[in-house]
Amino acid sequence: MTEMKSCKDFCDCLSDYLDGQMDEDCCRLIEEHLDRCSPCALMYESLKTTVLVCGKGLTAQIPDDVRESLRNFLRTHCRKENV
Amino acid sequence: MSDERAIIKRVLDGDYDAFEHLVEKYQARVFRHIIKMVQDRQQAQDLLQETFLNAYRGLSGFTGASSFSTWLFRIATNTCLMYLRKNRPESVEYDDQIENTRNSDFVPASPEFLSTPLDILLSSEGRRKIEEAIDGLPILYRSVIVLRDVEGFSIEEVSKIMDTSVAAVKSRLHRARNAVREALSSYYKDKNLSEHRRAL
Q: What ipTM describes this predicted complex?
């Protein structure tokens, strides 16, 4: 189990904690710390929001001309050869 | 997944139209990953074509040990890295660490960022700031954050796609997320301050 003593130690684990990569004992320690340390709790919430907005914010679609040129390119090249 | 295996079998049996189903399903996600890696639209278009052609040619070697999407994104990543090593080697060779001087892990969270409603964070301006924050990261960091937080691959899948250890993925993800958090926190703090000044 990772030894966590300072706020820095806890903050270093928050990304793994968000990803469910910490064991049960570490999760308990982190949760107890977040309950009593408001700067770390704020840090955790802002990291969680960052992950959320990255996931929802980058949804750009493929431009039509890129899609069209891909289709034409693959038809030209792939149909000439067997897999 | 079993549908996808059936489609792959049809492609291997010579049904090209079945391959177009796979292209249709994955092209937008793969393009998003490639354009974030190379940051050049024209080059991303060429590398997208090369990726799917490589996938078509290599499909008989797909064993199913990983998911098809993991296998395909690995091809896309390798195709981009080969291009970058040949044409922009400095972007890859000196790119394995966010500057220590940034020390972004310890920039305190900004209440202004957290109090901004989600619809503002995801407005066109908000999305542009997210794009800028990710684009400002070194390539290995922005690739990891895109694969994990945008495309939803697991840590283990990202390690396979990037051909690196799980520990390296976790470390890069931690730094990348904190750098983006810092950039967004700083932006919303300044924005809030300037709006407050205008109101006075």
A: 0.88
pTM: 0.90
Q: How far apart are CA B181 and CA A55, in angstroms?
A: 13
B83, B164 contact by CB (below 8 A): no
Helix, strand, coil proportions of chain A in percent (round to 5)? Answer: 70, 0, 30
Q: What is the DSSP letter of B116?
A: S
CA distances (Å), origin B112, targets B82, B121, B196: 42, 11, 12
Question: Are residues A49 and B127, on separate chains, in Cβ contact within 8 Å?
Answer: no
Q: Nearest by CB to A83, which of B59, B109, B184?
A: B59
> Distance between CA atoms of B46 and B41, rounded to whole angstroms?
9
Confidence at B99, pLDDT banded by 50, 70, 90: low
SS3 B154: coil
The Cα B25–Cα B11 span in angstroms is 15
Q: Look at residue A14 and tell me whether its pLDDT is greater than 90.
A: yes
Map tokens 């840590």 to a residue. B155
CA–CA separation, B181 and A57 (whole Å): 14
CB B92 within 8 A of CB B38: no
Q: Work out the minimum CA distance from A29 to partner chain B, whole angstroms.
A: 19
Mutate which of B11, B21, B49 to test chain A, going by most A C-beta atoms within 10 A? B49
**Structural domains of chain B, ranges and CATH numbers in brackets:** 2-92 (1.10.1740.10), 97-199 (1.10.10.10)
**pLDDT at B158 (0 to 100):** 98
pLDDT at A67 over 50: yes
